[in-house]
C-alpha cells in the first residue's frame, strides 16, 4: 500500500474514531438511563416498604408533636434518664430513611430527564458511522493493511476507556467535595457535644442541633453521589493494578446506616464518634479510588501517545 493511500486511510480513521466515540457515548447514555430506571423502581419499592413501616411506628408515638430533627432530639434528651423512648427512636430512624429514599427518587428522575436531553444530540451518529465505514470499505478493497486496522482498534479501545474513567473521576470528585463538608460538620458537632457534656448549656445544645440538621441535608446528597459514583465504576475494569481493591458493596446504604444510629449517636456522647468515624472511613476509601483512577487515566494517555507515534512512523515508513 502506498504511503499516500495510508495517509488518506489515517485521516479517515481519525474521523471514524471521533464518530465511534459519539456512538460509545450514546450507548453509555442508554445504559445509564436503563440503570437509573432500575434504581428508581427499586427505590420506589423500598419507599413503599418504609412508608408502611413508618406508619406502624408512628402509631406507637402519636404523642409526637413534630418531626423536626432538633426539636425531636430535645424531647428525647429530656427523657434520657428513662433510657429514651424506643418507639420514638425507631420511628424517627425510619422517617429519616423514608425522606432520604424520597429525595433519591427525585434526584434520579431528574437525572433521567437530563440524560435523555443529552441522548437526543446523538440521533444521527449511526448514519454518520455507516457512511464512514462504507467509504473506508471501498478504500480497503483497493488496498488492505492489517496493521492499520490493528492500530485503529487499539486507539479506539484506549479512548473509550479514557472517557469512562474521566466520567468516574468527575463523579468521584463531586462525592469527595460533599464528603469533606459532611466530615467537617460532624467534627464540629462532635466538639460541641463534648462542650455540652461539660456544662455548655443551651448555647452548645442549640449549635449541636444545628449541625445535626446540616448533616441531615448533606447526607441526602452524599447518598445520591455515592450511587452515581458506584454506577460509573461499573463501566470500568477495576482489576487493574493501578486501582485500589476496595469493597464497594457497603457504599449503597451508607445513609441508612447513618440514620439508624443518628439519634443515639448525637445525644449519647460516647457514641457520637461512630458517625464521624464512618464518614471519615468512607472519605478515605473514595479518595483512594479516585487517586487510582487518575493514575490509570495518566497511563492510558501515555499508551495513546506511544501508539499514535508508532502509527505515524509506520505510515511514514511505507513507500
Short account of what is shown:
By secondary structure, the chain is mostly helical.
Key terms:
single chain, about 325 residues, mainly alpha, about 85% helix, about 0% strand, elongated
State the distance separating the first and last CA atoms. 8 Å
For the CA atoms, what is the radius of gyration?
Answer: 27 Å
Number of strands: 0
Mean pLDDT: 75
Low-confidence stretches: 64-69, 79-84, 194-206, 240-252, 263-270
Number of contiguous helices: 8
Present the secondary structure layout:
Blueprint: H1 3-59, H2 69-78, H3 86-119, H4 125-142, H5 146-234, H6 254-260, H7 262-267, H8 269-317
Helix pairs in contact: 1-3, 1-4, 1-5, 3-5, 3-6, 5-8
Molecular structure report:
This protein is mainly alpha-helical and 319 residues long. It is 85% helix and 0% strand. It contains 8 helices and no strands. The chain has helices spanning 3-59, 69-78, 86-119, 125-142, 146-234, 254-260, 262-267, 269-317. The protein is elongated, with a radius of gyration of 27 Å. It starts with a helix and ends with a helix. Residues 64-69, 79-84, 194-206, 240-252 and 263-270 have low confidence and may be disordered.
Amino acid at each position: 500500500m502506498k504511503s499516500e493511500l495510508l495517509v488518506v486511510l489515517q485521516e479517515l480513521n481519525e474521523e471514524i474514531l471521533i464518530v465511534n466515540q459519539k456512538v460509545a457515548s450514546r450507548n453509555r447514555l442508554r445504559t445509564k438511563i436503563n440503570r437509573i430506571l432500575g434504581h428508581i423502581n427499586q427505590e420506589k419499592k423500598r419507599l413503599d416498604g418504609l412508608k408502611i413501616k413508618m406508619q406502624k411506628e408512628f402509631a406507637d408515638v402519636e404523642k409526637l408533636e413534630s418531626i423536626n430533627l432538633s426539636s425531636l432530639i430535645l424531647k428525647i434528651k429530656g427523657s434520657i434518664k428513662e433510657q429514651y423512648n424506643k418507639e420514638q427512636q425507631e420511628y424517627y430512624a425510619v422517617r429519616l430513611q423514608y425522606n432520604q429514599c424520597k429525595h433519591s427518587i427525585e434526584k434520579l428522575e431528574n437525572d433521567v430527564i437530563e440524560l435523555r436531553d443529552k441522548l437526543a444530540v446523538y440521533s444521527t451518529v449511526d448514519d454518520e458511522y455507516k457512511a464512514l465505514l462504507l467509504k473506508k470499505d471501498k478504500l480497503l478493497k483497493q488496498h488492505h493493511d492489517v496493521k492499520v486496522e490493528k492500530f485503529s482498534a487499539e486507539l479506539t479501545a484506549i479512548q473509550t476507556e479514557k472517557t469512562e474513567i474521566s466520567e468516574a473521576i468527575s463523579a468521584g470528585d463531586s462525592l469527595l467535595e460533599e464528603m469533606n463538608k459532611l466530615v467537617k460538620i460532624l467534627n464540629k458537632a462532635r466538639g460541641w457535644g463534648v462542650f455540652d457534656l461539660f456544662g455548655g448549656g443551651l448555647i452548645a445544645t442549640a449549635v449541636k442541633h444545628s449541625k445535626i440538621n446540616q448533616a441531615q441535608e448533606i447526607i441526602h446528597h452524599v447518598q445520591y453521589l455515592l450511587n452515581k459514583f458506584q454506577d460509573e465504576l461499573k463501566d470500568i475494569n477495576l482489576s487493574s493494578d493501578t486501582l485500589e481493591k476496595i469493597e464497594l458493596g457497603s457504599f449503597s446504604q451508607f445513609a441508612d446506616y447513618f440514620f439508624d444510629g443518628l439519634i443515639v449517636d448525637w445525644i449519647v456522647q460516647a457514641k457520637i464518634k461512630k458517625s464521624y468515624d464512618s464518614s471519615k472511613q468512607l472519605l478515605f476509601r473514595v479518595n483512594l479510588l479516585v487517586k487510582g483512577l487518575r493514575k490509570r487515566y495518566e497511563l492510558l494517555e501515555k499508551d495513546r501517545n506511544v501508539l499514535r507515534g508508532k502509527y505515524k512512523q509506520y505510515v511514514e515508513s511505507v513507500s
